[in-house]
TrEMBL record:
Domain (Major facilitator superfamily (MFS) profile) ranges: 15-460
Keyword Membrane: yes
Keyword line: Antibiotic resistance, Cell membrane, Membrane, Transmembrane, Transmembrane helix, Transport
Transmembrane segments: 50-69, 81-100, 106-127, 139-161, 167-189, 201-221, 227-247, 268-289, 295-318, 330-348, 360-384, 396-417, 437-456
Region of interest: Disordered: 467-491
Protein's membrane topology: Multi-pass membrane protein
Localization per record: Cell membrane
Gene3D superfamilies in alphabetical order: MFS general substrate transporter like domains (1.20.1250.20), Multidrug resistance protein D (1.20.1720.10)
Name this polypeptide is given: MFS transporter
Length: 491
């Protein structure tokens, strides 16, 4: 396995370009689709549940399979699995762009999530496996910075495409990115894999986890119908979740080893993660609709309006991580969710004919400040709460938990807020339900803050600082592979 490529070399630059292109496909896609939802619903005559599934189908397969995707790369070759993920993602994106109805679009979004689960962990793993140890941290920093730029421009790009050539280009734009990425990867990126002996894949665990999420999501989205099928689906989802825990406890090589939760700090921070990213997922899903349906913004205006949050993360998350190193994570993880909760309350001012400068921008600036305060310390604390050899596994679990929390929030919030199937077609009805949803999000964030204050403690002084602190994603925390003795190590 090659791990001596220098960043300044031509090959090093090609590797960085490849990984940025690949990860940007998945990252931008996760931020642009929300802006396109009102236009998709209008074109297909779809109800709110269909829009929820359009957002959630992708997150469902991504959250359920991201740990398995990383393991596939470790065993069969990280470049090979990364390239497969890019091709898969592009093919699914093409299907999304050509979808004749909302059912095909939702199915294609689920296929996109599978591709994302293959390429998302692979992009960073290739950097960790390919670059010389002296250049690795800088390479990861550049990858993170460019990723943050991609996350920041995603809503703007999505709005421009929706108002210009049409919402289908939100997906079709991934095809030329893949056509550029794959040849570069094949020609310039060295193959790497973990040469140690592996046990069998935890396919059953991955399947049970994905099925549990799918059934619970279905039950929440369709719960307003109150049918026997929905009730049985909810029970089956809970049963699948219990079966997942049972299987993971008894497998010799589980996807999610229960022993890692013996660390009270790791468990506590993941509970905080569930609260925080549930609120984030619900906020960004509903705010993109609120700005267009109620405030009367175009898709481009709505996408541009959301720029301050990711811009603040991109500019200041590294400094936030450094501050948490000095003062410990407890204060940032307590104060950050409270700031985000305050932002949710400020969003109550955003109604019909809302002023961007007076109503929208203050809420988004407070939201961005809260995210800056907590995201980097949260990731650092997750990695510092377990042994270094398990850092990659800990990061993967935390990333999957964040995505699952967002998935459940998008499914549950419209139900909790009383949004009917046609709510997004009525400015008045949606506005009232949006206010209730923001109160729910604020409440969940306060719970996360209390949990952090009560349970999070300063990590041991010899815990390593994670290399990936500046990743500007708004849908999940940074994902860091395992590193040991200069190379990736699989659990």
């Amino acid at each position: 396995m090659s791990s001596d490529v220098r960043l300044a070399s031509p090959q090093g630059k090609w590797i960085l370009l490849t990984t940025v292109l690949g990860s940007s496909m998945a990252m931008v896609d996760s931020t642009v689709v929300n802006v396109a939802l009102p236009r998709i619903g209008r074109d297909f005559g779809a109800d709110l549940a269909a829009l929820q599934w359009t957002a959630n189908a992708y997150m469902l397969t991504l959250a359920g399979l991201i740990l398995l995707g990383g393991s596939l790369g470790d065993r069969y070759g990280r470049r090979k699995v990364f390239v497969l993920g890019v091709i898969w993602f592009a093919a699914a994106s093409l299907l999304c762009g050509l979808a004749p109805n909302v059912g095909v679009l939702v199915a294609a979004r689920a296929l996109q999530g599978i591709g994302g689960a293959l390429l998302t962990p692979g992009s960073l793993a290739l950097i960790q496996a390919s670059f010389h140890p002296d250049d690795r941290a800088r390479a990861v920093g550049l990858w993170s910075g460019f990723g943050g730029i991609g996350a920041a421009i995603g809503p703007f790009l999505g709005g421009w495409l929706v108002d210009g050539p049409g919402w289908r280009w939100v997906f079709l734009i991934n095809v030329p990115l893949a056509l550029a990425c794959v040849p570069i990867a094949v020609r310039h990126v060295p193959e790497s894999a973990d040469g140690r002996k592996h046990g069998s894949f935890d396919v059953l665990g991955a399947a049970l986890g994905a099925v549990a999420l799918a059934l619970v999501t279905y039950a929440l989205i369709e719960a307003r119908n109150g049918s026997l099928v929905v009730a049985l689906t909810a029970v089956a989802g809970v049963a699948a979740g219990i079966a997942f825990v049972y299987v993971e406890k008894r497998r010799p090589d589980p996807m999610m080893p229960p022993g890692i939760f013996a660390s009270r700090q790791f468990t506590a921070v993941n509970l905080v993660t569930l609260c925080v990213y549930a609120a984030f997922g619900g906020f960004f899903f509903l705010t993109a609709l609120q700005l267009q349906v109620v405030a009367g913004y175009s898709a481009l205006q709505a996408g541009t309006a959301l720029l301050p949050t990711t811009a603040l993360m991109l500019l200041f998350s590294a400094r936030s991580g450094e501050l948490a190193q000095r003062i410990g994570p407890r204060i940032p993880l307590t104060v950050g969710p409270l700031l985000c909760a305050a932002a949710m309350l400020l969003m109550l001012r955003v109604g019909q004919d809302a002023s961007y400068l007076a109503d929208v921008l203050p809420a988004l600036l407070v939201m961005g400040t809260g995210m800056v305060t907590l995201v980097a310390p949260l990731t650092a604390t997750v990695l510092a709460s377990v042994d270094t050899a398990r850092a990659g596994l800990a990061s993967g679990i935390n990333n999957a938990a964040a995505r699952a929390a967002g998935l459940i929030a998008v499914a549950a919030l419209p139900l909790l807020a009383g949004m009917g199937p046609e709510a997004y077609r009525s400015a008045g009805a949606f506005d009232h339900a949006f206010d209730r949803a923001m109160l729910w999000c604020a409440g969940v964030l306060v719970v996360g803050s209390v949990l952090a204050y009560a349970t999070v403690r300063r990590p041991a002084p010899d815990c390593r600082r994670p290399e990936c602190l500046t990743h500007g994603s708004i849908t999940a925390p940074p994902l860091e592979p395992q590193v040991g003795k200069g190379r990736l190590e699989a659990e």
